[in-house]
Amino acid sequence: MFNIAGSIKLFALDLDGTLYRGQKKVAGAITLIDYLRDNFQVFFFTNNSTKTAGEIHEKLNSLGIECRLSEVYTSAAAAAMYLNESGLNNLYVIGSDGFRSELEGRGLHIVDNDSADNLVVGFDADFNYTKIATAFSILLKGGKFIACNEDGSYPVGESRYMPGCGAMVGAIAASAAKKPDFIVGKPNTYILSKIAGKHRIKHDEILVVGDSYESDVMMALNFKSKAILINPQKSVINKNMVVLEDLHKTLLYITLVQKRV
Length: 261
What we know:
The protein is of the alpha/beta class. The chain has a domain at 76-183: HAD superfamily/HAD-like (Rossmann fold). The chain contains 9 helices and 14 strands. The strands form 4 sheets. Strands 5-4-1-12-13-14 form a 6-stranded parallel sheet, sandwiched between helices. Helix 5 (129-140) links the parallel strand 7 (118-121) and strand 8. Helix 5 crosses helix 6 (165-176). It starts with 9 loop residues before the first strand and ends with a helix.
């Protein structure tokens, strides 16, 4: 059990599989968030690259999870930030219309053929051989390979999963014999570093809540932050994390720890 009162100032909450599954809100989400807002800063993050940050913001509010747009961090928006910071432009984009909109909305230029200088890959439900071939050609020319994430799958409902962005990234990486030059999403710490930097929060003042050890928790541990894993089937021993059954147990744990300090 780690200290929360006095040491933790910010909660970073995963979305897919943690606060909602598909279009359904997870039981206990609103009660937990209401409690956290009274005691901590709260932000939301997701590896989902298919939607703009604005669209994710709208979804949260439609589910009754009230938040500001500035509190929402997505791998799509983070990819745009990274590309601008790195001076990478003239992009061939594999991804959704929402992803393309996010990139273009932040001043990036998209080229729909292999004359592009660089490649950026998000989740693409219309992924096909032609897109692999175009990406392959760009990488052979020395273009940079930026990926939103390498998630193998994502939750779409109770006990239902679908192939994730990692399927697109893996196919391209295998064909070109080249791994991504940079992966924006978790377990990379890029998104968490942006949250910390913008809001002047130290790494050890952050607690991440998520349902994936491989992405959510590893991002937190890589950033030297603390984590709560919502997964009753996972058994992990680490002084900087705890494993809990659900969001109701998470709220109970947080309130108990605060009272004991």
